[in-house]
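Input chain follows. Return structure tokens only.
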Amino acid sequence: MNNILHVENEKYEMNSLSQANIEEIQSLCDSCNDYFLISQGCKTIGNEALDILTSLPPHNDMNDKDVIGIYNTQKKLIGLVDLVKNYPNEGVWIIGLMLIDPKERRKKIGQEMDKIIKTHVLSQSGKAIQLGVLRENKTGRAFWGKLGYLKVGETKSEIKGSQHEIDLMRFDIKTSEI
């Protein structure tokens, strides 16, 4: 995956994240309390970074997972994307989470990251990208819809004791759409 993200006149660096980055991941989570208030019903509690690094869907292992950090020119982690390949089927990748620091939102970082993800998934013979968006997260649903993801189903899930309705969204990859 290309490790430089160009957005307008800014340049961001992308790197795989690991347990060595846990403090900066948690700091990013703390900055994104708006998301965690929706997803877990309270502000961050300190274990979100570890959850991001280790959570996997059934039948996948850590070799299927990559958490990619997005760094600004000051080397501060300002975003991340959690990707898992071959779930729920072979050739389908999921975005488990995309977080962008609120101060960095509306700068097209998420849009450009999505393009890089689509190109990467295609280069790995992936056929589609799927994700779940909390129904309460209207901004998130609008964002993914604008990028061409279509609602393909619904499910319910419990996150940190809070029940949520989740819209399943999918982007079927075709080279002409990237």
